[in-house]
Specification:
Elements: E1 11-17, E2 23-29, H1 51-54, H2 74-87
Antiparallel strand pairs: 1-2
The structure holds zinc ion.
């Protein structure tokens, strides 16, 4: 039986095969939802991790290195840039 705190469904259950051949259950926190653009599209190239893991990952590995990378999707960025160029 797992300890009572591990019975929570907010924890993910991962079946891990041990070197001895047994399968045991490991409990891990669920990953946060994927980052989204203002248009609703899921942002690609964005790391889905908890804050304590995000701290360990390099900034360049967390989001695309372009203007508004990690904020706008590529389609919205392109639209915005065209719009900006028109208004000048
Ligand atoms: Zn968008």
């Amino acid at each position: 039986m797992p300890r009572p705190s591990k019975k929570s469904r907010s924890l993910r259950r991962i079946h891990v095969k041990t070197p001895g051949g047994r399968t045991t259950v490991h409990y891990k926190y669920r990953k946060p939802k994927a980052a989204k653009c203002s248009c609703g599209a899921v942002l690609k190239g964005i790391v889905r991790e908890r804050p304590y893991k995000m701290k360990k990952i390099a900034k360049t590995k967390k989001r695309p290195t372009r203007p508004y990378g990690g904020v706008l999707c590529s389609r919205c960025l392109r639209k915005m840039l065209v719009e900006k160029a028109r208004n000048k």
